[in-house]
Amino acid sequence: MPKEERYDFVIVGGGPNGVGTAAYLAKCGASVCVLEERPEAGGAVENTEPIPGVRITPHAMYMYAGPAPAFEQLELHKYGFRMDWSPQSKNLAEQQVRGVATTQGLAPITDKDAMGWAKISGMLTDPPFIKELLRSIFWCPPHPPEIEVTAENVPYMQVYKRHQPDVWTEELLDMTMFDLMDEYLETEPIKVMHAMVAWYSGAAGHWEGVAIPALGCDITLTIYGGISVPRGGMHDYFHSIIRCAIAHGTVVRTCCPVDEIIIQDGRAVGVRLRETATTDEKKIWANKAVISDVDVKQTFTKLVGPQHLSTSFRRKVEDISLKGGSIWVSHLLTREKLRCRPKFRNPVSGDDAGLGPYPCDSRAIYYEHVADVDGRRGKPTMPPERLMWLSTPGDRFDAADPQCTIPGRYLASPYYTYVPPPEYTVGGPDALDKVKEEINAYLRKAFSQTIENLNDDTLVHHWANTPYESEFRNSGLIGGTWCGTRHCDDQWGENRPIPELARYRTPIERLYLCNQTACHPGGLALMAIPYNLMHILIEDGLAEPGKWWYPSPWYIPQKGKISAVPLHAGGK
Amino acid sequence: MKQKRELVGQPHPQCFFSEFPAESDWDAVIIGAGPNGLITAAYLARAGLRVAIVERRYEVGGGLATEEILYPGFYSNMHAIYHLMVDFMPAIKDFDMERHGLVWIKPNLQTAMVFGDGGSLLLTRMIEDTMDSFHKYSDKDAVAFGKLMRNWRRIVSEILAPATYIPAMPPIDLTVAMQRTDIGREMLELVEQSPLDIINNHFENDRIRAFLLYISCMWGLDPRETGIGFYVPLLIDRGMNKCYLHGGSHKLAGALSREIVRAGGTILESSDVIKINRHNGSVTGVELMEGRTLNSDVVISSLDPHTTFFDLMDKNKLPTDLKDSVERWKYDKWSFNTVHVVSKEAPHYACEDQWVDESFMTIFGFESTKQLLAHWDNVVAGKIDKNSLGGHATCESFLDSHLVRKPGHISFFQMHAPYGIDGGWDKRGPEIMEAMLAKWAKAAPNMKRENIVMAKQETPKDIEIRFPNMRRGSIKHGDYTPIQMGCFRPNEACSNHSTPIKGLYLCGASTYPGGLVLGGPGYLAANRVAEDLGVKKWWKPTKEMERYIKTYLT
Ligand SMILES: Cc1cc2nc3c(=O)[nH]c(=O)nc-3n(C[C@H](O)[C@H](O)[C@H](O)COP(=O)(O)OP(=O)(O)OC[C@H]3O[C@@H](n4cnc5c(N)ncnc54)[C@H](O)[C@@H]3O)c2cc1C
Ligand SMILES: Cc1cc2nc3c(=O)[nH]c(=O)nc-3n(C[C@H](O)[C@H](O)[C@H](O)COP(=O)(O)OP(=O)(O)OC[C@H]3O[C@@H](n4cnc5c(N)ncnc54)[C@H](O)[C@@H]3O)c2cc1C
Q1: Most A CBs within 10 Å: which of B1, B7, B8, as the mutation test of the A interface?
Q2: What is the CATH number of the domain that holds A534?
Q3: Nearest 10 degrees: Cα torsion B308, B313, B314, B315
Q4: CB within 8 A of B260, min separation 6: which ones?
Q5: Where are the domains of chain B?
Q6: CB B22: neighbour CB atoms within 10 A?
Q7: What is the 3-state secondary structure (H, E, C) of B179-192?
Q8: Of B58, B73, B402, the CB nearest to A473
Q9: Does residue A498 share a domain with residue A469?
Q10: Of the residues A257, B12, B355, B518, which has the maximum number of CB atoms within 10 A of its CB?
Q11: Looking at CA atoms only, how far is residue A218 from chain B in angstroms?
Q12: C-alpha span between A453 and A455 (Å, rounded)
C-alpha cells in the first residue's frame, strides 16, 4: 500500500520557475516535491529531436539570465552548467558595422546610437554598472504594499541615480522605450530594432511606463548574454537547475497533473492529483506551503475551488491581459544553408547569420504589426514584404554540439512571429490553426524578403507550433504567449499580475505563486522569481537559508515580518 | 571612437558567470547514459565514488526515450517500450523505484496475432487465456503449451533470469552446474536445438507455430541457428510478462539519473566523448568534443566495441587479440523500421475477437511460418517484399494518456528490416512506409489515410543517427549468435566487464548478458568496478540470484 506522502513544500508545475524555487528551498534544507503534468519537466524550456539528428527548441532559445544571483547561490556550474558562446558575443562591435535590417537593406548605426545605447545600458562607467542595473530590474521583489512607490525607491531608479545621474529623471518611470531612445539614440531603424527585441523579450517598446524593464530585457540578452545559448540549449541549463534541486533532496514527479489545491480552513495543505497520474498516491500533503508554477488564471479558476475566493478577486484574475506576446514559432530545415540577399550581408565578414528583427524601417511598420496582433486580432493583414518577424543567428549552434543538424541539412531555427492570442482571436481559438499551412507559406514569403534561397527546392521541413499548439503542449502557456500575461505597467512590478498578488502571496494562506504569469518580473527563464520569492518565504518564516544567501540590496522588508536580510548583514 | 566601440562590443568580464570547468577529476567516468550506463553510474555513485556520466544527446536515456517525434503535441516511446525484465532486474529493487513513483503496467493481454480471415491468437500473462485461444486451432497445442509453460516458467525464474545478473561462465562450467537439477538438464537439451526445431517439436498447428516463432525470434534470434535454444523459453516467458512503464520508458532513465545526482554524481549532456585518454597503457580519462577533459583512472564505456576500441582509442595500440575480436564483431542481423502515427481513432482490427484491440502488442501480416521465415530471409538478404511484410504494432495512447497533448491517438507499427536495404533507405523509405501503412489498414481497416493525422518513419539508418553506437541500427549493439553470447560477449577477455586495458571497463549491451533493457551489463559492470576498486557494495543479490547461486554455484 502506498504510504502518505508529505513534504514541507509541494510545488505544482515543473517549469524553470517551479524547479528553481525547489532548488532554493531544498538548499535551505526543506523537503520539497515538484509535480509536473508532462512527461518531462522544464516547462517552456525544452528540446525535441523531431527527426534524427536535428534538434529544435520549440520555445526558449536564448540565455537572458546571466546576472542571476542563482548562478552563485545555487552553484549551477557544479551541476553541469555550460554556455555555447556565440562568436558574435566576442564582437558586438561588428554588429554595429553591419547595421539594422530594413526593407532597403542594412541601415547604418551611428556612433551616437552606439554611445547613447551604451550609456543607458550602464556600459560607460568604469566599472560598468550593467549587472547592478539588471539585477535591480529583475532580481528584487516588489516593494511591500505599505510602501509608496516613488522615483526614489524604484530599484533601477536608485541605480541610475547612483551610477549615471544624468540619465536619472522622474520621467523615466512614465516613458515608453521609444521615448527613451528618442532621447539617447538618433536613427529610426536602430530604435525600431531595439523596440522589437524588447517586445519579443519583455515589455514592448511602445508600452507606457516600462521603458527601463524593456531596455533590461534587451540588454540582458544582447550585451550580458552575448546573444548566446547554453550548451545543449535552454533545456540543458534547466538540467543544471533541476539537478541542483535533486542533489539537495527534491523529489520530482513527472506525468503527475494536479487537479486541485486542497484548502482547509482557508489554508493550502496539499494537492490532489488527476486519476491518471503515474503514481499510486493521489494526494500529496504540504506542511509549510503549496507553491503554484501553473499560470495565474488556471491556478485560481481550476486548481483553487471558487468557494475559497471572492467574486471580485476572481473577476480581476479573469481580466488579466494575455496580449502582446503570442508566438508562432517556425523552424526551417533546408538542403542549402540559407543565404541573405546581398543587401543584407555583413559588409565586413560577408556573414549570412540571422538578422534579428526585420523589417525595422520605421515605427509605422511596427505599429501596423501591433494593430494586426493586438488590435484586429485575426489573420495577419500586412503584406508579407512588411510583416515583422525575428530570426536568430544561424551560427548560434556550436559545431561541437553533436545535435545541431545532420550532414547536408541546415537548420534555421527558430523564427518568431507574433500573432493574436488564441483566446482573443476573432473566429475562435483554433481559427489560425485551421489555416496553418497557409500561414506557414505566408511566413516563408515574409522570410524570403531577406533570404534568397528559401523555396520548395531547398525546403525539407517547416515545423511550426502555433500559440494554440503551445497551449496544448504546455497547459501553462496561456495565450500561447511566451510570458503569459502582458508585461505592461499595469501588470508589472508592484502590479504583477494584480496588486493583490504582487508579493507572491495569495488570498489563501500558505499558497504562493511562482509562475511567470503571476509574478514579477514575468517571462524569461531568469531564475528571478525563485530568488525574489525567497525573500517572501523568509519573511513568512518558511525558509531559512544558510550563509550562501544574500538578499537584493533594494529589497524592503514588509512591516511585521522577518527580514530577508541575514543578521550578519544587518538584518532583523 | 574605435576604443569606445570596443567598450560597447566587448562583453564585460562580469558577463562570464561560472561554468563547468574545462578540466575536472573523477573516480569513474561513464560513457553513454543509456539504461546500462545510468545503472552503472547510479550504483557506483551511491557506493561513494565521484562519478561523472557523459551523454552525447541532449537528454539521458539512450534506448529509454519518450520524445515528441510527432511534433507538435505527441510523445512516443521510440525505442524500448516493452520492458521484459521488470520482475527480476536488481536495479528496480535496489533503488526502490516505487519511491520514484514508477508504475509498471503488465496487461494480461500481452500479444495478439491476427490473420487475414479474422482469426487470432493470444499470448497472455495468464496461461489459461493463451490456451483458450490455441484451442480454436489445436487442442493438442493448447494442452502442450500449458504443460510446457509450467516447466519453462521455472527454467526462467530459477535459472535464466537470475543468471542474467551473475557473471558469465565458460560453457563447460555451465554444463556441469546445470546437471544438478531436472530443469537444468531440460534447459541444456534446448541449447542445442534451433528455435524452429523447438517450436516444431512441440506444436503442430502452423499458425501457432508462426505466432510462437515470432515471439521467440523477434529480438534477433536466427530461427534456424542452434546453440541459442535456451532463449526460446526465456523470450516466450518474458513475452508473457512484458511491462509498460506508465508515463513512458524515459521515466526509468529519469529515476536513475536522480539517483546519480542524489548520490553526488554529475551528468553532462550534449557532450560527445571523442577520445579515451591513456598514459603508459592505463586509462587516464576522456576528452569531450566541446574541449573539456575529465580525468579518471576508471573509464566505463557503454558503447559498442567498434566505437570504444577503434574510434575512441588508437586501434594500433591495442593488444592483437582484442583488435582481432573487435574486427570480427558482428552487428545485429536486422534492425527495426518503425512507422509512428497520430490517428483520430485508435486502431481497430478486423478480427472476430474484439479483445485484440486491447492487446499490448499486435502482430499482423503473416499467415504462416513459411511467410514469416521468408520475410526474415529477405531482411537478412537486404530486401523487403512489399507484398509480404509484417510486424507488430502497439497503440501507446491506449496504455498511457500522458503521451498525447492534443486530441488523438498514437500508435506505431514496427517491422524487422535491413540496415543495408537494396537501393538505400533514402530512396526506398517512402515506398516502404506506404506499404506498411497499407498493410496496417488491411489488418485494422480504420487505419486509412482519413484517420491518420501525422505519420513518421524511423528507419534503421535513423536509429544509427540518433545513436551512433547502435551501428547499422543494431538495437542490441551486436548480434545474438552463439559466438557472441555468454562469456563470448563481446569476447572472452572482456565479458567480465573489465578489459585488457587497465582502468577501462565495459557496461553496455554489447557485453554479457546483452541487449534490451535487461539492466544486466550495467549491474555487472558496477559489481566488477566495485570489486576491483575495493569499494564496499551497498547492495545484495536478489533472492532469485541467491537461490541460483546456492543451487548451481556453491
Ligand atoms: C516561444 C517561446 C520563446 C521563448 N524564448 C525564451 C528565450 O529565448 N529565453 C528565455 O529565457 N525565455 C524564453 N521564453 C520564456 C520562458 O520559456 C518562460 O518564461 C519560462 O518557461 C517560464 O517558466 P515558468 O516556470 O514560469 O512556466 P512554464 O515554463 O510554463 O512551466 C509551467 C509548468 O507547469 C506545468 N503544469 C501546468 N499545469 C499543471 C498542473 N495542473 N499540474 C502539474 N503541472 C502543471 C506545465 O506543464 C509546465 O511544465 C520563451 C517562451 C516561449 C513560449
Ligand atoms: C527501435 C528500437 C526499439 C527497441 N525496443 C525495445 C524494447 O521494446 N524492449 C527492450 O528491452 N529493448 C528495446 N530496444 C533495445 C534497447 O533500447 C537497447 O538494447 C538498450 O537501450 C541498450 O542499452 P545501453 O545502455 O547498453 O545502450 P544505449 O541505450 O544505446 O545507450 C548508449 C548511450 O550512449 C550515448 N553515446 C553514444 N556515443 C557516445 C559518445 N561518443 N559519447 C557519449 N555518449 C555517447 C548514446 O547517445 C546513448 O544514449 C529497442 C531499440 C530500438 C532502437
Answers
A1: B8
A2: 3.50.50.60
A3: -10
A4: B38, B41, B42, B45, B51, B53, B267
A5: 23-63+248-329+471-553
A6: 11
A7: CCCHHHHHHHHHHC
A8: B73
A9: no
A10: B518
A11: 14
A12: 6
Q: Which atom of ligand 1 is nearest to the CA of A42?
A: 49
Quick check: A200 and A368 in contact, CB under 8 A?
no
**pLDDT tens-digit readout, B76-119:** 999 999 999 999 999 999 999 999 999 999 999 999 999 999 99
Asked if residue B164 lies in contact with residue B223, where contact means CB atoms within 8 angstroms, the answer is no
Q: pTM value?
A: 0.96
Q: Identity (one letter) of the amino acid at B223?
A: P
- AA letter at A365: I
Most ligand 2 atoms within 8 A of CB, residue of B54, B67, B79 to mutate: B79
For the record, the C-alpha cell of A410 comes out as 541546415
Give backbone dihedrals phi and psi of A64, rounded to 5 degrees, phi first: -105, -10
End-to-end CA distance of chain A: 47
- What is the residue range of A176's domain? 92-224
- Residues A345 and A476 grouped into a single domain: yes
Alpha-helical (H) ranges within A395-521 are 436-447, 467-473
Q: How do residues B255-301 score in pLDDT, each as one tens digit?
A: 999 999 999 999 999 999 999 999 999 999 999 988 899 999 999 99
Which residues lie with the beta carbon below 6 Å from any ligand 1 atom? A 12-18, 35-38, 43-45, 59-62, 64, 257-258, 293-294, 327, 329, 470, 474-477, 482-483, 515-516, 523-525
Question: CB contacts < 8 Å between A and B, how many?
Answer: 211
Ligand 2 near B311 CB (within 6 A): no
Could you tell me which chain B residue has the CA closest to the CA of A49?
Answer: B69
CB B113 within 8 Å of CB B211: yes
Atom number of ligand 2 nearest to Cα B302: 26
Q: Give which of A10, A45, A48, A90 to mutate to test B binding, by max B Cβ within 10 Å.
A: A48
Looking at residue B330, the DSSP 8-state letter turns out to be -
Neighbours of A276 (CB within 10 A): 16
Mean pLDDT of chain B: 95
**CA B443/CA B227 separation, integer angstroms:** 35
Nearest to A118 among B8, B59, B69 (CB): B8
Amino acid letter for position A233: G
Please give the Cα distance from B74 to B92 (Å, whole number).
Answer: 28
Question: Please, which residues 43-62 of chain B have a Cβ atom closer than 8 Å to chain A?
Answer: 56-59
Q: How would you label A37-69 residue by residue, b for 16+ Cβ within 10 Å and e otherwise?
A: bbbbbbbbbbbbbbbbbbbbbbbbbbbbbbbbb
Q: With a CB-CB cutoff of 8 Å, which residues 311-340 of chain B face chain A?
A: none
Are A347 and A463 contained in the same domain? Answer: yes
Fold that domain B23-63+248-329+471-553 belongs to in CATH: FAD/NAD(P)-binding domain (3.50.50)
Q: How far, in Å, are A369, A379, A384 from residue A374 at the CA level?
A: 8, 11, 18
Q: Is B105 on the interface with A (CB under 8 A)?
A: no
Distance of residue A396 Cα from the nearest chain B Cα, in angstroms: 14
E strand or H helix at B93:
helix B90-94
Question: Around A199, how many Cα atoms within 13 Å sit in the side-chain half-sphere?
Answer: 34
Q: Which of A31, A124, A235, A254 to mutate to test the interface with B (most CBs of B within 10 A)?
A: A254
Confirm if B29 and B286 have CB atoms less than 8 A apart. yes
pLDDT of residue A1: 43
Chain centroid offset of residue A183 CA:
27
Same domain, yes or no: A374 and A473: yes
Phi and psi at A66, nearest 5°, equal: -40, -50
Looking at the complex, does the CB of residue B401 fall below 8 Å from at least one CB of chain A? yes
Give me the interface pTM, i.e. the ipTM: 0.95
Return the pLDDT at A88.
61
Cis? peptide before A359, omega within 30° of 0: yes
Q: Is B238 in the pocket of ligand 2 (CB under 6 A)?
A: no
